[in-house]
Amino acid sequence: DTYVVYLNSKLTSTLDLTNATGEYKVFWYNPKQGGALKKSKVKKVKGGAKVELGKSPDKKQLDWVILVTKE
Fold first, then answer.
1. In a 10 Å sphere around its CB, with 0-12 CB exposed, 13-18 middle and 19+ buried, how is residue 50 labelled?
2. In this structure, what is the dihedral angle of CA atoms 66, 13, 41, 43, given to the nearest 10 degrees?
3. Is residue 71 within 8 Å of residue 22, measured between CB atoms?
4. How far apart are alpha carbons 71 and 61 in whole angstroms?
5. Model-wide pTM > 0.70
6. pLDDT tens track of the chain, all 71 residues?
7. Rounded Cα–Cα distance for residues 25 and 63 (Å)
8. Phi then psi for 38, rounded to 5 degrees?
């Protein structure tokens, strides 16, 4: 399972994983600069609840894509 969240002008997001099971890795991607995926303080989340995805790796940049992938 993979989830993609786009943030425009927000520092963080909540993802509803109430119907999902297992653990998921959280990566951030800067669509303006490209390059490698980045990690923030929240590196993993668990299915079965609404989860906070943490704050962006760079608080000055407000345009982010969050990739949440099942382990």
1. exposed
2. -50
3. yes
4. 28
5. yes
6. 999 999 988 888 999 999 999 999 999 999 999 999 999 899 999 999 999 999 988 878 789 999 999 99
7. 20
8. -120, 160
Q: Which two tokens stand for residue 20?
A: 């999902």
Question: Distance between CA atoms of 66 and 19, rounded to whole angstroms?
Answer: 19
Q: Which amino acid is at 38?
A: K
Alpha-carbon distance of 31 to 47, in angstroms, equals 26
The strands making up 44-46's β-sheet, listed across from edge to edge, are: 2-8, 63-70, 23-29, 44-46
Quick one: 65 exposed, middle or buried, by C-beta within 10 A (0-12, 13-18, 19+)? middle
